[in-house]
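Weekly sync, protein design subgroup
Attendees: M.S., D.O., the rotation student, P.L. (late)

Item 1: inverse folding check
M.S. brought a backbone from last month's batch and wanted to see whether the design step gives back something sensible before we order anything. D.O. pointed out we never logged the input encoding, so this time it goes straight into the notes. Structure tokens as presented (629 positions):
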């Protein structure tokens, strides 16, 4: 029994109140009539906000607006994810009406019906949990995602078949294994399906990673169903599995899978489009689009018009993808209303701050806004030739057989089709016909990586990098981590200068990577040594001393004078002397020192010094005592 005024008692009362509100809202929604005053939410706004703008908190089940959910400090947080993950999990808990449930199943019917008929496909179609995932992901009705949804369902179908084999239960459902007790079996089945080997290699590491995400989604769905149906066993099993998944899945499955992926990428050559191929392909597309536009305007044959229209649409689409480095799916979905939307006039104050060239480009290029990935608004720049081609495409749409209900510029020319041309197919088709050196490198993804990688050479500032990343349609962090390729040339050319400067201890002289010039440092040091007057005197003196030494040796031994080769180094004391008779060195002594004294007096203008030589056992260790002249 908790004290009435304790903190735990207050938290428990709040959770009970929110749970009661959730059950009330569920009954109201399933009743078929939802009014703003019939549902109970937290912090109702003064303005009239529809119930579809609210979402329950996964931890305490209190209803909050989607945009305000991240501010809510839940007393029993159900996830450690980001704001987006919190909203997604809350949407799974949203109750749906019978009519919405029927509509959702109808939209997902093409996804399930289009699946291949085999053992894996039948297991995925029949299992209620896998089918529920297909219905939730297919409710948007986007046909381009249907193949991706089917692939997700088939992955879970393969896992289900393996779980049935390991457990010996032929008719078991996937929900039977989403429990804490069956977690080790799920890990074993995932490793078997993905092809984990004892030697540490994995046949399909991406499959193991994808199954981890799908299993979390399955557990979230089961937890939502348990809350909605007041089934405490289902809810506790799902929560227990999610906790185990968060604690152990990374160590047992994800980390080895990622390690295998990185090991496979090591040493793999990363190919980017050649600049020559990009230039050649651009010229090919421009020439082809001009010719196709002329033929389309002149020709009046319906069949020929249709072929010319399709050809011009494909060439123009390829031009937009190539020039803007845009994702093929984004450029393909450009709508007529996006193109014909009224353009906002340019701010004259901003124009004054630009250079003459930039002002001319603003007048030549046309900017069109389209929807990109995750609903982002991304720009597309059109040249005058692209704009002319699009105008012709819009003008001859009906003659080419395009349906009036089709809203895309690059539409499929069939009367009953509302789809668009696939940019990847058009790019692949015309790249093969352009006669390039490496046509396989020209893809929309490689083109985007090409501009991100080559921009490293420009050494862009932070604001310029932000502008480039925003134009490309992704975050700066994604731009740095995924789209930039670690070019081997840049690593050797740029980073090596830093390492060499550090080795010499001169890195603090520079403020920019491009200012470092190791070759100039070596040349400067050599010139300084050569121009040092004291060093020149020492080198000249050393040469005269060697000549005197050769004369003395010849006088004492009676042999002819030896030829002396002096190799000068940076330090004169390290000169290498090559003698033709090394045995004569033992007979040197006072004569050699006398010659040295004469040479010194001749060069400095001072009187000759008296030299007394005390010989030891080893002539090389003589102690020389000199008295002032």
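Designed sequence read out in the meeting:
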């Amino acid at each position: 029994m908790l004290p009435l005024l304790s903190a735990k008692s207050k938290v428990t009362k709040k959770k009970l109140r929110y749970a009661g509100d959730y059950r009330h809202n569920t009954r109201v929604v399933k009743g078929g009539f939802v009014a703003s005053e019939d549902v109970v939410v937290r912090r109702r706004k003064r303005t009239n906000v529809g119930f579809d703008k609210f979402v329950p908190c996964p931890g305490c089940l209190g209803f909050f607006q989607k945009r305000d959910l991240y501010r809510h400090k839940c007393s029993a947080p159900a996830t450690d994810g980001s704001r987006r993950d919190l909203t997604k999990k809350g949407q799974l808990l949203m109750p749906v009406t019978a009519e919405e449930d029927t509509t959702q199943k109808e939209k997902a019917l093409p996804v399930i019906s289009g699946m291949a008929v085999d053992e894996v496909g039948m297991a995925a179609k029949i299992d209620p949990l896998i089918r529920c995932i297909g219905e939730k992901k297919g409710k948007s009705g986007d046909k381009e995602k249907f193949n991706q949804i089917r692939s997700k369902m088939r992955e879970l179908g393969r896992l289900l078949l393996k779980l049935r084999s390991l457990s010996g239960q032929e008719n078991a459902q996937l929900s039977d294994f989403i429990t804490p007790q069956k977690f080790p079996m799920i890990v074993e089945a995932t490793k078997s399906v993905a092809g984990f080997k004892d030697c540490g290699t994995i046949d399909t590491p991406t499959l193991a990673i994808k199954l981890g995400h799908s299993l979390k989604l399955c557990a979230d769905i089961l937890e939502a169903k348990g809350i909605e149906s007041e089934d405490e066993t289902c809810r506790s099993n799902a929560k227990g599995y999610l906790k185990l998944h968060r604690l152990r899945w990374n160590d047992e499955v994800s980390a080895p899978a990622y390690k295998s992926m990185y090991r496979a990428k090591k040493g793999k050559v990363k190919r980017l489009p050649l600049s020559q191929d990009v230039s050649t392909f651009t010229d090919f597309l421009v020439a082809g689009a001009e010719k196709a536009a002329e033929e389309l305007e002149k020709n009046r044959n319906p069949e020929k018009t249709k072929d010319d229209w399709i050809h011009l649409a494909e060439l123009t689409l390829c031009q937009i993808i190539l020039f803007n480095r845009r994702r093929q799916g984004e450029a393909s979905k450009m709508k007529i209303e996006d193109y014909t939307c009224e353009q906002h006039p340019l701010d004259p104050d901003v124009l004054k701050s630009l250079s003459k060239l930039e002002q001319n480009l603003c007048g030549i290029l046309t900017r069109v806004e389209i929807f990109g990935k995750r609903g982002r608004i991304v720009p597309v720049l059109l040249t005058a030739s692209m704009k002319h081609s699009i105008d012709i495409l819009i003008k001859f749409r009906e003659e080419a057989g395009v349906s009036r209900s089709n809203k895309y510029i690059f539409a499929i020319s069939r009367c009953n089709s509302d789809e668009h041309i696939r940019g990847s197919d058009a790019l692949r088709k015309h790249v093969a016909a352009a006669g390039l050196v490496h046509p396989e490198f020209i893809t929309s993804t490689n083109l985007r990586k090409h501009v991100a990688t080559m921009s490293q050479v420009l050494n862009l500032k932070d604001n310029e990098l932000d502008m480039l990343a925003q134009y490309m349609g992704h975050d700066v962090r994604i731009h740095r981590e995924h789209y930039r390729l670690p070019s081997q040339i840049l690593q050797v050319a740029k980073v090596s200068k830093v390492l060499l400067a550090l080795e010499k201890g001169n890195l603090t002289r520079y403020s920019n990577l491009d200012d470092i010039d190791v070759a100039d440092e070596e040349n400067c040091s050599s010139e300084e040594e050569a121009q040092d007057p004291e060093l020149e005197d020492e080198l000249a003196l050393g040469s005269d001393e060697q000549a005197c030494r050769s004369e003395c040796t010849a006088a004492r031994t009676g042999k002819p004078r030896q030829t002396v080769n002096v190799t000068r180094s940076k330090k004169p004391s390290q000169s290498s002397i090559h003698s033709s008779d090394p045995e004569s060195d033992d007979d040197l002594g006072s004569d050699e020192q006398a010659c040295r004294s004469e040479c010194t007096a001749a060069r400095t203008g001072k009187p000759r010094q008296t030299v007394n030589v005390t010989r030891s056992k080893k002539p090389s260790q003589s102690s020389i005592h000199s008295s002032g002249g």
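Discussion: The CA atoms of residues 36 and 47 lie 11 Å apart. The two ends are 112 Å apart (CA to CA).
Action: P.L. to compare against the previous round before Friday.
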